[in-house]
Amino acid sequence: MSETIKKHIGEGFGKGELYAALAYDSSDAFGGMQIKQLRFSPASTANAIEIAGTCTRGIYFSGTITSHALDFSGITQTAGDISLIRAGTYDIPIDVAGTSQYGMMRLYLSTDDDGTSYNRGIFVCLKTAGTKGIFPVSGLAEVLTDATGPTKAQAAQFIAGLHEAGSNLATAGGDTTAGMYGAWLKVYSIVGSVAASGSKVAPVWVDNQMCGTVSGEEYGIFATTGGTRPDGFIGFETTSSGYDQFIYADTTFDSGAGTCFETSAIPTTAQDARIKVWYDGKQYYIGLHR
After folding, report:
1. Which of 16, 43, 151, 277 has the most CB atoms in a 10 Å sphere around its CB?
2. Would you list the domain boundaries of the chain?
3. Cα–Cα distance measured from residue 54 to residue 106, given in angstroms and rounded to the nearest whole number
4. Are 160 and 150 in contact (CB under 8 A)?
5. pLDDT in tens, 120-146
């Protein structure tokens, strides 16, 4: 058998099942292999590996992995709408059936190691050396036509919590990055870099664009609280420059009675303190009265 295989992988088996499974064409040229519902084809074809039909698990890993279960480091991605991993398209998405909390990707991880570092469930680093913009992680939640619609449409959800009665959060110990936050959002630059005139920089961009009917409530930021009373809605702490203004509005927008910049019913009594506000190129002060 080994001698026959050395000559021709299909030669010793005639035109039987193995010959057909190896996908020879009429000229006896090897075209791939099929083992039940798993098909292997030459790399020049559309699908080099294809799993067809119904199965419990498409690919299952077990045992100990000493490196990476899947590694795409050696590939070259061509230009165009090319993805390493893809499910559906914008026009034809994959339907996630069922009424429970399902999802296309679900990871459950844990660690009980000690140390001062941390684990990342999913880490994405995206670099650019050109003019093309970058979004390492993005999400789009779109509500389509329905008589009622959902009660929840949230593009992202991040929750951190002390989950058990014996859970503890250690003291920061001088580490300015330590703490428990739903999200840590940061912008930075190093000495010598430049954010051009006319550019905008902020850790958070809040953008309301509700052009339809809003019969309920709408806010720029919606905040809720429960349990213990927080020390404040906003906590300011800086070890360097601080903030030049509390609010900076560099263009005119709606003002007058009933708006956030109310120009009527200004108190005439002496103020106890004031908050600086830069509005439409001028310095204003919000008086605080006891």
Report:
1. 277
2. 1-53, 244-290
3. 20
4. no
5. 889 999 999 999 999 999 999 999 999
